[in-house]
Amino acid sequence: RKQHGKVMKRAWGYLTVYHSLTLTLILSFLLTMLEGARRHTVRMEAECITDIGMNSVLAEFHRELLEQYDLLFVDMSYGTSRASIGNSSEHLRRYLQANCRQSSGDKGLFSARDWLALSVDRAVIGEYSLASDDGGNVMKRQALEYMKGASVEGIAADLLLRVNEVENLGLDTRDVAAERENIQAQIDAVELPKETDEEGEEYEIALDNPADGVNASRNSFTLGMVLGSGYRVSGAAVRLEQYLSHRERRCGTGIPAGSPQPEGLAENLLFDCYLFDKCGHYGKETDKSVLKYQIEYLLAGKGSDVENLENVVKRLLLWREVANVIYLLSDSAKCAEAEILALTLTAVFLVPELAEPVKYSILFAWAYVESLADMRALLNDGKVPLMKTGSEWKTSIKSLFGFTGGTVEGGTGGSGLAYGDYLRIMLYMEDGTKKNMRAMDLMEMDIRRTPGNAHFCMDACFDSYTADVSISSAYGYAYETRRHYGYDK
Predict the structure, then answer these.
(1) What percent of the chain stands above pLDDT 90?
(2) What angle do CA 275, 278, 282 make, to 5 degrees?
(3) Are the beta carbons of 299 and 276 closer than 8 angstroms?
(4) Least buried of 152, 343, 354, 391, by fewest C-beta within 10 Å?
(5) Based on C-alpha coordinates, what's the Rg of the chain?
């Protein structure tokens, strides 16, 4: 039994050593697994924190800009006068740190964050695309995202047809003023008979060309002539140096690589549709805007509604004059009327060489009077075709006599294009960069009217950014990454 007892004692000794060695191996394995799990959890948690933090920065999009213009941008000034990407970097760092920090109610033995002990070492935004980058194409790309569900097929075919017609007819390029001056120079070169007054002094007999009175009115205030007496237009005005297109701009990194460029026929048409959807013009003003004639501002870029409307009306008046000159010169009956009148005027003076230039001066004056009637119709919700037929002609040659500018009648109704249709043609022909920048001027004007946005600037707004993030654990692990986030992702 004693021998047996010794044997048993040895057996228990062997088991103790075996268990000790086994337990050491098991504990080593478990601790290794635990440390590996901690290491991978640190990485996974850091990635989740980074995703949450970067999305949280984008969640701070400017509410008023979204409300009025359906654009998603983060204002890195956050309602202050100090716009800096450093502000957004600090917001990102705070969001990251808040997700690393242990909550007060989660400090138990199995608390994951107790075991990870994460902290943010670095959070810096290095690259970002501002709304004004690439000539405003960053903003334009956002506008196209908003409009991507809209169809422009019906608008596109008709608009492009009209644009081609404008270009082929030379409505925006033909210099009718130079042609008119050349005709007048021919008239002035012919010496008219002279008479002697009671004091013995000679004077040239006046030709009494009705075109002279019409031409004298060309320097008058155009809006007064086309709107008539008692007209009322908006008196709104701004100081342009305060807005994007007239000040030094901040620069970002532009449209991210691989993103679609907002250029092309369909994109330009869609963007014009966006502008007409968000902006008002004469006859269709919007209450939210500072300048009431916003489409006219996109075309003219002046500091007041009166200037912008006057500028657009003059340009459109020129289009109508060119079109009406083309029509008159093709209408043999109206050319005959002008020729008879010219012959009548010049026959008295026995200067037949004047008949031809006087005839053309009458035709050009008649085209101008008709153009004023066209403009009055357009600004009174009427319609005027690009090129007229005889039945669509409004004025007679008699309207040249005693012309004062305020006597033109335009009427309403009619067929062809409305004022807004002509604006669409002009807007499509406008330089893309100017259009983008002026559109952002309007956005700044309107957003600054709202509470807390007195310092709002479109070149302080970004829609995508790249951040370098470094998160470390108190247990010796670190995670570094560079991520790009934006509203198109």
Answers:
(1) 60
(2) 85
(3) no
(4) 391
(5) 38
Look at residues 201, 180, 206 and name the one whose alpha carbon lies nearest to residue 363: 180
Tell me the pairing of strands 202-204 and 461-473. Answer: unpaired
> Please, are residues 359 and 207 in contact by the beta-carbon 8 Å criterion?
no
Break the chain down into helix, strand, coil percent, rounded to 5. 55, 10, 35
Give φ, ψ of 137 to 5 degrees.
Answer: -70, -20
Burial code of 155-183, b = ≥16 C-beta within 10 A, e = fewer?
bbeebeebbeebeebebeebebeeebeeb
**Which residues lie across from 120 on neighbouring strands?**
471
92-145, pLDDT tens digit by residue? 999 999 888 654 455 555 554 466 778 899 999 999 999 999 999 999 999 999
Instruction: Quote the CA–CA distance of 80 and 103 in Å, as a whole number.
Output: 31
Residue 473 host element (H or E): strand 461-473
d(CA 321, CA 315): 10
Structure tokens at 256: 């991210």
Which DSSP helix (H) or strand (E) runs through 412?
A: none
397 strand-pairing partners: none
| pLDDT tens profile 228-265 | 767 789 999 999 999 999 999 999 988 887 777 788 88
Quick one: DSSP state of residue 482? E
Q: Quote the DSSP letter at residue 190.
A: S
Round to whole Å and give the CA distance between 488 and 480: 24
What is the distance between the alpha carbons of residues 6 and 482, in angstroms, rounded to a whole number? 69
